[in-house]
Amino acid sequence: MLDEVRRRIRVKHYSLRTERVYIAWIRRFILANGKRHPRDLGQPEIEAFLSHLAVEGQVSASTQNQALSALLFLYREVLAMELPWLDGIVRAKRPQRVPTVLSKQEVAAVLAHLDGRMWLIASLLYGTGMRVLECMRLRVKDVDFSRNEITVREGKGAKDRRTVLPQSLASALEREVVRARALHDDDLRQGFGEAYLPAALARKYPQAARDFGWQYLFPAARRSLDPKSGQERRHHVDPESLGRVLRRARLRADIAKPVTAHTFRHSFATHLLERGYDIRTVQELLGHKDVATTQIYTHVLNRGAGGVLSPLDGLG
């Protein structure tokens, strides 16, 4: 059955990360119910499983909703069971949190404790507002030096968009292109050199995978086996490697705030709004579907709570 779940996920063109997460939750659900087949389980078992996650497991609302999404996929897409009560299961309410934003001085302090490729990637996240996976998945052809633009392919929601290419990073990015070409030429000499392409593109353009333009801008140091096809190819840099160096850089910069790759995206949006850019422009650069998502950054602007004089400071 798990093989069928995997097949249906790939038919739907879900990401490999989603595939792994859904498989893990479905397996956990089956084991929690004594390895009984999901067809023999129903609303009480699903609600008990989700309640166990929340009470005993103390998982976050987003994790609980992720488990529910996996089970909904199992029953609707794989088992094709029309269960009206599934629509009645209430999703956990996610807390509305204000994003962590670094000041310009704090951004500079963190970047000062990075070097090499990690410095470039972190600088690119702050300078473009990209998500970390969007940055790692950049292809050489997606960087337009003449127009100072970066094209983000298949971002969240499978949408393409364009964002700004910081001119201060152009030289460093050009060096990355040279490095990527050297690795690609070496792979070609060894009989490799095919980059991963979505299935439809690979069928339509069978030679494109070996073209330099389709290679990752930030290729991994070593080739690895593709988990889907089993083919040996060069993937992009592991995003977790950036997280590790950011934690060390934050400590060295003596910054108390948590700093992740996504913190640079939050800071990018907030600093643009502080400089007077229109919220619709920021929305397009970030790739938000709804402007309401972008409006959360107006809550942390200096002209909000930080720009108000406390009545206590006016005494005397």
TrEMBL record:
Its main location: cytoplasm. InterPro entries: CB, DNA_brk_join_enz, Integrase-like_cat_sf, Integrase_catalytic, Integrase_integron-type, Integrase_recombinase_N, Integrase_SAM-like_N, Tyrosine_recombinase_XerCD. SUPFAM superfamilies: DNA breaking-rejoining enzymes. GO terms for cellular component: cytoplasm. Pfam families: Phage_int_SAM_4, Phage_integrase. GO terms for biological process: DNA integration; DNA recombination. Coiled coil: none annotated. Residues 1-79 form the Core-binding (CB) domain. It is found in: Cytoplasm. The keyword Transferase does not apply. Keywords: Cytoplasm, DNA integration, DNA recombination, DNA-binding. Residues 97-310 form the Tyr recombinase domain. GO terms for molecular function: DNA binding. PANTHER family: PHAGE INTEGRASE-RELATED, PROPHAGE INTEGRASE INTD-RELATED. Belongs to the 'phage' integrase family. Site-specific tyrosine recombinase, which acts by catalyzing the cutting and rejoining of the recombining DNA molecules. The XerC-XerD complex is essential to convert dimers of the bacterial chromosome into monomers to permit their segregation at cell division. It also contributes to the segregational stability of plasmids. Forms a cyclic heterotetrameric complex composed of two molecules of XerC and two molecules of XerD. This is Integrase.
